[in-house]
Amino acid sequence: IALTVTKKEIGNIQVGGTNLLGSHIPIYGLYNIPSFVRTGTTSFEVIGHVNNDGTVRISNIIDGNGWYTISFDVKCQVEGWNVGVEFCDGEIKDFRPISTTDYTHCVYSYEVANYTSDIFNFIDIYGLSSQTFWFKNIKVERGKIATDYSPCPSDYSTTTEMNSAIQQKADEI
Question: Within its chain, how far is the Cα of 87 from the centroid?
């Protein structure tokens, strides 16, 4: 019986892989964000609000019900603050404390059950206080388990461009 239950639990694990966050996905300051700069496809710099309620939205990233995982690295300007994450107005997870010197790695998996294409298709990063936060290596993937950071495949438009990028890296080495 235990083996049957274990097999069923293992069979239900959904491991992600493909980063859904590409250059085509909007990221913006939603609420009380005086400064927001997208510094790359999966990175941004933001200043929050004195009431610790600044919110950044990753819009149109959820495309159906099911498990999703977000992972990212973040650091902030002032010691002792936190960052919160929520999927589609669901349960919120707080990460604290966020480091001021090294990036803090954050991972949150959540089962979306209220998806709609016109409203509940987002991830909010909230609780941002009036200081600078630096986010990088943001990855959103389907499944319950985070995998190592990788860029979104749709950001590589052609095989020729991909081969050129690989050759440039090889030349640098």
Answer: 10
